């Protein structure tokens, strides 16, 4: 393939706006069709962003100019839409999580392999300059040998701002499966596969209320734990502690720390594409009168900051160059396996070993330019 990749988007919810803004600005891809369960919404998005074709999902899947389908539907339909795209001979980029269960997700990856098409899975924040700067720093040995990690995501819940929040508290979501992919994809990309997890979960309220948009005031059911705490063990031997909560009065997002033998690396929020990366030096031996204030050394960020859609762009260039893309379906499946195991552990109280694994996740070249025309 030497021409820009033809992209079709299915699902025009909140997240579609940033995808459309970015993908229509990259020279190496062309957004040629937009589809939605409500075709009128797809029409509005197509007109807003200058996309030539619109309709329902079938209109995107049957469009001969679509080489890759971007699946932005709700989690419950990710596998269905992705599988239909594969059957139509299209590559797929899917929002997270890649699926809701192991069996159907493994089947999707097998179908794609048999059809000779690729699966890519969000989050693509791991391609952003913020994360990649931290990844290079660890590879260069700035903190020595990574030993343990700590992550935290705490919020009062997306029901306070999202106009359609019910799906975020349904099976396939909750803080574990909605926000967990950002944190665990980042950690697996840095430290390698996770070998086992132990978790505990709670659901303090079984019903919540919509607070914004046309349905404000309506109530909906909370189907999954709204706070989950996870202990993880990595195949390489490191351990991790992780808090994910939609119940916290204290808003604290994006805590991700890698603690090593020679210092600590504080990373940007894994739900963003940029942010502060800092190295914290050890205090060393403390003597009377010595300062206990630790020095934070900022690491200069390298690369162009964009946003969601980088994973699609990387797939387009990888397909053209016949090289592996970075945010693969296999990475998405391993992270899903970890999160489902944490969910099962929270329900049973048992430590669970992770059956899946994944290979090393490549580094994005420092000179990666989303706005360069490299195809066609």
Automatic annotation (TrEMBL):
Coiled coil: none
Residue span(s) of domain GFO/IDH/MocA-like oxidoreductase: 131-265
Residue ranges constituting the Gfo/Idh/MocA-like oxidoreductase N-terminal domain according to the UniProt record: 6-119
Keywords: NAD, Oxidoreductase
Keyword Transcription regulation: no
Lineage: Bacteria, Bacillati, Actinomycetota, Actinomycetes, Micrococcales
KW NAD (keyword) present: yes
Transmembrane segment boundaries: none
Protein name: Oxidoreductase
InterPro entries recorded: Gfo/Idh/MocA-like_OxRdtase_N, Gfo/Idh/MocA_oxidrdct_glycsds, GFO_IDH_MocA-like_dom, NAD(P)-bd_dom_sf
């Amino acid at each position: 393939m030497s021409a820009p990749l033809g992209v079709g988007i299915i699902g025009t919810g909140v997240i579609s706006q940033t995808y459309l803004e970015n993908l229509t600005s990259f020279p190496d891809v062309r957004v040629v069709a937009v589809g939605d369960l409500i075709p009128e919404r797809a029409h509005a998005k197509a007109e807003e962003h200058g996309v030539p074709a619109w309709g329902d999902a079938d209109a995107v899947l049957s469009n001969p100019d679509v080489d890759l389908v971007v699946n932005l539907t709700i989690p419950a339909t990710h596998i269905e839409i992705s599988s239909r795209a594969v059957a139509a001979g299209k590559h797929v980029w899917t929002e997270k999580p890649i699926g809701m269960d192991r069996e159907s997700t493994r089947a999707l990856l097998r179908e794609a392999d048999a059809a000779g098409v690729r699966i890519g899975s969000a989050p693509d924040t791991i391609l952003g300059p913020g994360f990649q700067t931290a990844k290079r720093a660890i590879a260069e040995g700035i903190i020595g040998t990574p030993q343990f990690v700590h992550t935290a995501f705490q919020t009062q819940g997306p029901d306070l701002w999202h106009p359609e929040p019910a799906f975020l508290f349904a099976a396939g979501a909750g803080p574990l499966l909605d926000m967990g992919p950002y944190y665990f994809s980042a950690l697996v990309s840095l430290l390698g596969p996770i070998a086992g997890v132990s978790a505990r979960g709670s659901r303090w309220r079984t019903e919540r209320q919509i607070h914004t948009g046309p349905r404000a005031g309506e109530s909906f059911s909370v189907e999954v734990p709204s706070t989950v705490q996870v202990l993880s063990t990595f195949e390489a031997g490191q351990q991790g502690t992780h808090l994910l909560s939609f119940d916290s009065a204290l808003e604290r997002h994006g805590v991700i720390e890698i603690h090593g033998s020679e210092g600590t690396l504080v990373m940007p929020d894994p739900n963003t594409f940029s942010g502060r990366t800092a190295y914290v030096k050890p205090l060393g031996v403390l003597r009377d009168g010595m300062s206990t204030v630790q020095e934070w050394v900022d690491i200069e960020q390298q690369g162009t900051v964009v946003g969601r859609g980088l994973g699609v762009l990387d797939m387009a260039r990888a397909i053209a160059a016949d090289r592996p893309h970075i945010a693969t379906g296999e990475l998405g499946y391993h992270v899903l396996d970890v999160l489902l195991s944490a969910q099962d552990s929270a329900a049973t109280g048992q430590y669970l070993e992770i059956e899946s694994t994944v290979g090393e996740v490549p580094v994005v070249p420092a000179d990666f330019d989303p706005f360069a025309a490299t195809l066609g």
